[in-house]
Amino acid sequence: xxxxxxxxxxxxxRADELEQxxxxxxxxxxxxxxxxxxxxxxAACADLTDSTQMSLFRDEFPERFVxxxxxxxxxxxxxxxxxxxxKIPFVSxxxxxxxxxxxxxxxxxxxxxxxPVKIIGSHAGLSVGADGATHQMLEDIALMRVLxxxxxIIPCDSLEAERAxxxxxxxxxxxxxxxxxxxxxxxxxxxxxPFEVGKAYVYREGKDITLLATGTMTxxxxxxxxxxAKDGIDxxxxxxxxxxxxxxxxxLASVKKTGRAITAEEAQIAGxxxxxxxxxxxxxxxxxxxxxxxxxxxxxxxxxxxxxxHFGLTATHIAMTAHQMMG
Amino acid sequence: xxxxxSIEALELKANELRxxxxxxxxxxxxxxxxxPLGLADIFTALYFNIMKHDPxxxxxxxxxxxxxxxxHCVPVRYAAMAETGYFDKKELKTLRQLGSRLxxxxxxxxxxxxxxxxxxxxxxxxxxxxxAMALQMDKQHHRWVYVVTGDGELDEGNIWEAAMLVGKYKLxxxxxIVDRNNIQIDGPTEQVMPLDDLRAKWEAFGxxxxxxxxxxxxxxxDACSMAKAxxxxxxxxxxxxxxxxxxxxxxxxxHWHGAPPNAEQAKVALKELRTLQGKIKSEADHE
Lengths: 327, 287
Description:
The structure holds two protein chains of two kinds. By secondary structure, chain A is of the alpha/beta class. Helices cover 36% and strands 19% of the residues of chain A. Chain B contains nine helices and seven strands, in the order ααβααβαβββααβαβα. Chain B has helices spanning 7-28, 34-50, 74-84, 124-137, 157-169, 189-192, 198-204, 217-229, 263-274, and strands at 65-68, 145-150, 174-180, 183-184, 187-188, 208-213, 235-240. In chain B, a hairpin with a 2-residue loop joins β4 and β5 (187-188). The A-B interface holds A 42, 63-64, 66, 68-69, 71, 73-74, 77-87, 89, 104-105, 108-109, 112-114 and B 65, 107-109, 115-120, 122-123, 126-135, 137-138, 157-158, 161-162, 164-165, 169.
């Protein structure tokens, strides 16, 4: 079984009853595990401790948790100070506020200052839903990936979020950004699925087109690949949980094989994941590329499912785009 | 670290820092004059008397921490570091040059002993708070965190976010020193954005306030001792300083906030400093 499924993914992404959980839940569990493994792991939150699931850590390690209040600039700079004294601080809020509001502080006191603060941006992306455009953070990938030293991770499901949190806690050198979602999304990995910072994973092999996806869009790309297979198109799906550093070798090898690519993300394509892939391919192996994501506009209130449909962020949209590219 | 106890000797040392500052700024051709000159007494007191630190071992894990939040005043810190032996004084003249460890605004990773990277204003107090909290978690109650902020910098919201937090958690191992020189780039602070009643603002945030003449070294030393004795609230020392202190034509003039002296001005300034503004006779100008 493991020879045909070396990454230990679930077998059927189109099953009716996939288990679902928000990625932030995985983070909450991962942080507790990291706290148990390492006394220097500490946490701070800006008045969203339950929402970000940092409450699990707070409840187990109250003496290592600091409530910051609604003050995101203070949140990250306080974290920089804790890191200066040898702590591994995880600082959490909604992504719209952190890193949305405090970018300069992150740039100067964490990145330029080389402090290993881990910034947790929860409720990122369109799927925040009813809260509307103010809370739907779509520019964070772009904001974080342009910063030297910053590691940027977007897990595809709650289990990967747990693994990513543990991996970030072990990195005593680099600052990191972990992008999480509010909404429940399908769990497509298992406890044995590998995760390593800086690695992209071929979740489905194919030869006709490369679907590059990050975060919860990886599920949609997997479903799209199944749909495309029925139409005779053999799509390769690569899950890219680490946007920076980007696993250039894995991505280029696939695109050299297929000759065309689609990116999928729940964020602005400009400067985001699609932007990163466009940069990589145009310099190294230019091929036709389409980017699925937010096309330079803001979201609005609605149910997550309605919004994803309205703004074209579904498996159907990925499959339709692939058809267009295959001519 | 060899401490200097005599106030007279400390005052002479502060003047040496001022001479260093003028020479560095002249060599650099850009930078801030007024703030660093005004802070020379505070930095002399901290580096030569108050703080526990080891220039030969900047990362000594028993050291006190000093954060310079208003990074543009870093020439005074570079001067204090050179004078205490962190590096050779000759290096001061590399300020702001390509490849120098002495960046225009301080970068921690380039020069051991800086503690933070700063320049964009308002983020020093919250970093100090994080450090003070971490020291408390680790029960290192014998170490102190000092943070120097400007006064124009208090326009920043980040400062008051941090002030609220330090007040809430009573981080009494942190001592804040506000350089109250009443100037910022666009003019007098009370015209640009009024800060008074500054004492009442800090008190309202849960702090114990000491107000001193920040150009009186003895007062600086006494205030820090007193601050350590206050256990129920964190302490901020509002240190009233004269911007450009020690150089007549720079004193109180906000135009010198962000400007360096030219060669002629530097010559006049150095002569004034060597003669303590005409109070003592000095040898002829020697460069």
